[in-house]
Write a structure and sequence with these properties.
621 residues
Length: 621
Amino acid sequence: MSEDATTLEHNGAGGLSAAIVKRDDGIYFDAAADAVSCVAAVGQLFLGGAYFAGLDYAVFTRVLYHCGPELPPGQAGKPLLRFADSIEPFHAVRRGLYKTVKLIGGEAEYYFEPVYFEVPDLPPQPARLKFDEFVADMWGKGIRFGIDAPAVRDVIATGRVARIIVARRLNAVPGRDATIVEVSRDIHRSNAPRETADGKLDMQTFQNRFPQVKPNVKLLRKVPSTPGVRGFELSGAVLEPPAPRDIELTSVAGAGTVIENLRDGEYLVSAVEGFLSVEAGSKRISIGPKIISREGVSARTTGNLQLTGEYEEFGDVQDQRFVDGGNITIHGNVFGNISSRGGDIVLGRNLMGGTAVNADGAIRVKGVASGAVLQTKRGEVALARAESCIISGTRVVIGEASNCEIMADEVIIKVAEGCAIAARRIEITHAGPRKQSEMLLYTLVPDLSKLDKKIAELRPKIAQALREAEQHKAEMDAITGQPEVRNYLNLATRVRKREVILTREQEPLFQKMAATVGPSLRAVARISLAMKAAQVRQEQAQEEVRQVEREKRALMNGSRCSVQLLTGDVLARTMSFVPDGPPPYDRPPKELKAKVRGADAGMTKIFSGHEGPIDWAPPTE
């Protein structure tokens, strides 16, 4: 508000609210004032015998009722909103020119005709109506909203005789009820062949045999209700629209789903990987952790399965069939291929010639695995019996293994015959060859060359820092050994300890002595800082060496090979691996088989013979 702005006062109205501000360039509403205050201020002025000259009725209505056209760009956002040129008195003589208004069904009808001033002793004098006065007069007659400004201005300007609707009620506009719409196309079952990325049809895979979703998939979206637009009676009274009906996503949210409020709306979202079902009656959408099938996996029943949730199958998995999912349980025999992206693979019977691959989780076979591949990148592989299999994982536990290639961090086997086994920790109860297959054991030992190189790089730094510290100490001793410096330091020490009390005559001499040796003392301080920095570098490098040596010992302590009883010739070697690289057992099957059946350069023989036991661990020093 400018300094020359003043709160409007009018002789007939008394002090008005600060909602209206009068300035030299016009009349303004204070944008900070609420609509109720503005309406009260306007009513106080109109009923007090005044009107707004040069009234901008659109701005006037917008401020009072927040409806109608938006404010002009020049006014939007300003602290003061100009809506009139000035405030003028509305004399009774002028007020008498305006006739009664007729109210019919929310509309105000007015009859415009020539008007005259009544002057004593003279014939009636012609007069003209004014729109600004008309607004003030209508306010007093209860018409405070909805004046058709263009129509009224036109009739007044032309002076024609007309009966027109001068004001209309603004009816409330009903809102829109809330609804729920589908946003995912994958929630319906389809047995059609799946279309591949290149547009071809995969006849081995159904398009969507079991409706399933991944986590965080949007399933349904709530289209929120839209509030109606309120209207106004001619009196300015508010007409509230009927409240729109709402619907909550909780009414259709079942197990395995969550409701999330995102930027573009409220969604029903899958919370887990699983299969989608719609509960009869309640219509709730639920996502279960697994699907249970009793028909088996074949070209006739399910085709290849690509699942994102838990799967339990009571039938067999036929040869060349693929089951891809997570937490997979097969109660029948498996002749095909099982692939899990996480969770456990549990095979209740036998794995014959197929594969079981898990990216993150265990593989457990309760029966026999024969001519199969079992690999997990992170997890345990447990079998009752394995024959001619390729097996890898974090930990491998087998009752009986024959003619197998195995690689893991830890291998525990009761009976091993004709196997090639590589692991950091090997524990076997009985081991020996089988027919033409050797019994080969490889203890994985870490390649410490990087750590040895790091130590070799640190030792010169330690020696260099030590030499620098000794050199700085020698420089300090040379300076502090000078007679005048030594004498001053001794005297200063005794003065500081109050062993010597200087007289008034001795203090100037002591200060002169300090000034003389000052450059030498500053040099000593500078050299002392350099010496301490060298000592810190030395200690830091030594601590790094100690830390690397601790890492070496920890790595070496993890390797061990133990066989309690030999049933024939066994050859045991070391096999190096890079400790900070990927797991040594994370290899394709063919590469893993070649690795454990071959002999690389640099391998060290730790045992060869048929008499045991074997109990080997690498030296830690």
